[in-house]
Structure formats: C-alpha cells, structure tokens
C-alpha cells in the first residue's frame, strides 16, 4: 500500500480497521499512514522513541500487515477521548483515561456555553493536542492534509456530556491569517456524536465569529461531499429565515450585496444556494454596469416556503446569543 503522491499521510486503502475513542468503538473511513513510523507499517510512530517499547511491541503485538495490500496495518487504535493520545494497547488506554490531565479541565477559552460548550484552543499553545486532533480527523476526512504545522490555526472544539463525562464531540479549525478570509478550514463531528446537529452548530458559530469580526466570510474550498451538504443546508435555512421571517420579510427588493452583508455569507455562496433551491430568477433588465454582487435578486418566496415545507425543517437559529462569549 503506497501513499498518494502530493497528499502526505493519504493511503489508497484504510490501514486501521477500527478506533476506540473512550467508551465508543467504530470503523474508520479513510487511511492515515502518519500514525505509523515511516517504512514500518507494524509500528506506531511514538513507539519508535523508546527501544523498550519496540521490543515489547514485537513480542506482544497482534496480527499486522503481511504484505497483502488488503490487510490492515492495525486492527484497533485506542484513543483518549480527551487528549487524543493513542496506543495499540487497550490496557494502556484504560490506565491513561483515569489520569489524563484533561479530566479536570479541557484547555482553551470558552467561547460559547449552553448545553454544549465551544472552546477555542490555540494550535500554538496546545500543539500536541491539536496535532492529535488532526491525526484523528484524517481517519474520517478524505481531504485532510495538515497534521503538524498547526501553530497558525485555532481549533474550536465542541464539548458535551457522554456517559457522565464532558468530552470533545467535534471541532473546526480556523487559520489565523487567511488570505481568502475563510472562517473555517476543516470541520469534523466524531462518528458517535453525529445526528446531534453539532455540525450545524459549529457552522453557525463560525459565522457568529465572522459577524463579531465584521467580515463577510465562509469555509475554505473545496468542500468535501458531506461538507457541501452541511453548508447548503445551513445557507438555505439562513436565506429562508431572513427572507420569510426575518430582516427582509417585508422587502420587495434586495441586492445580493445587502443580503451578503447582513448574513455574513459570501455572495457566491448565496448564489449557489439559491440555485440549489431553485428559488431565484434572472431578468433581462440587469444593469451590466453594476458588479454582480449589486444585481437585484428576483427570488420566489413561494418556492422558499415550499422548500421549508418539503425539507420539514425549522429555520430558527441554534446558537443562543446570550450564551456567546466573544471577546
């Protein structure tokens, strides 16, 4: 099994069969060779640091790759659900969980506090934790390629209750100096905690950050297939909320520029969403002297209402504004 050229850590096939994250065990979606010592598919990278660990591993490790490219390099990776340190040894994980320093306080600055908490964790200050998050994310994201050079990123981690403990359930990263002024670089909700609308919560929170910063922004492209679906759903709800029930419900005319500035969503993302919903039309009297973001939008509110009904969705915000701690 060889790495795909140009994408560090990417493998042609899944090389780790399953992950145990705290009390949850589930299959991986993609491979990640970065967990392993380069050139040694039967050894995790950290194990090479200590010669005793290497000897112990060779004596006691389970079945590993045997030259067959369809085989897994590792059957189960055991990962701490607080600090995301990892091992092949279940007993080591179990002993670590009781003494992990993040049991007492997960690092970072609290930015949102409600049923779920969102903390901003600096990649510069908490490098090991953020590197481990990135390594773990690659097992579930096809396009993830940044693992170690994370000092210029902040990580927004959502925490919630699971089996009586408050644990990370997902995160998104944001580049500190983004030439395109993106408000999100990478997003992942961990498999055991999906279908809790946490992806929607984090996306909405990323736009609250943009609003606080006074910017029109959006995610880094290209989006993954799941990411595109998530964003289209979010953008659609925002458009329906503001045009049907919110700021512009009485407006007979509005420019793309006004809608973009109010929602903090880029004009191109609004256009692609309106097109996805089949709710906008062009007219023959567009003033060609104006820039595209100033074109009058011809939007069918009846189509928007049908979309809301057909999707059986609610347009209310998930974020509780009085729970935001932005400063």
Automatic annotation (TrEMBL):
PROSITE patterns: MYST_HAT (PS51726)
GO BP terms: regulation of DNA-templated transcription
UniProt keyword Transcription regulation, yes or no: yes
MYST-type HAT domain span: 11-309
Molecular function (Gene Ontology), one example: zinc ion binding
Keywords: Acetylation, Acyltransferase, Metal-binding, Nucleus, Transcription, Transcription regulation, Transferase, Zinc, Zinc-finger
EC code: 2.3.1.48
Pfam families registered for this protein in UniProt: MOZ_SAS (PF01853)
Protein name per its UniProtKB record: histone acetyltransferase
Species: Komagataella pastoris
């Amino acid at each position: 099994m060889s790495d795909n050229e140009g994408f560090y850590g990417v493998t042609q096939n899944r090389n780790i069969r399953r992950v145990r994250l705290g009390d949850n065990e589930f299959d991986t979606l993609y491979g990640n060779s970065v967990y392993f010592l380069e050139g040694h598919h039967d050894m995790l990278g950290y194990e090479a640091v200590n010669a005793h660990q290497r000897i112990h591993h060779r004596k006691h490790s389970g079945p590993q790759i045997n030259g067959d490219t369809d085989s897994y390099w590792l059957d189960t990776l055991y990962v701490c659900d607080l600090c995301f340190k990892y091992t092949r040894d279940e007993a080591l994980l179990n002993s670590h969980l009781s003494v992990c320093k993040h049991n007492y306080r997960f690092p970072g600055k609290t930015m949102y506090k409600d049923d779920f908490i969102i903390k901003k964790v600096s990649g510069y200050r908490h490098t090991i934790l953020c590197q481990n998050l990135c390594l773990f994310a690659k097992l579930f994201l096809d396009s993830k390629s940044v693992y170690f050079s994370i000092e210029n990123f902040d990580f927004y981690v959502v925490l919630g209750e699971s089996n009586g403990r408050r644990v990370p359930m997902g995160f998104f990263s944001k580049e500190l100096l983004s030439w395109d002024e993106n408000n999100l670089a990478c997003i992942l909700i961990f498999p055991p905690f999906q279908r809790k609308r946490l992806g929607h919560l984090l996306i909405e929170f990323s736009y609250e950050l943009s609003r606080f910063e006074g910017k029109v922004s959006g995610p880094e492209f290209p989006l993954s297939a799941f990411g595109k679906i998530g964003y289209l759903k979010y953008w659609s709800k925002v458009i329906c909320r503001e045009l049907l029930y919110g700021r512009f419900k009485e407006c007979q005319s509005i420019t793309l520029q006004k809608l973009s500035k109010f929602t903090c969503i880029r004009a191109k993302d609004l256009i692609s969403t309106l097109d996805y919903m089949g709710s906008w039309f062009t007219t023959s009297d567009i003033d060609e002297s104006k820039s595209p973001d100033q074109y009058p939008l011809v939007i069918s509110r009846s189509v928007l209402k049908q979309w809301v009904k057909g999707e059986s969705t609610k347009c209310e915000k998930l974020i509780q504004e009085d729970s935001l701690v932005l400063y």
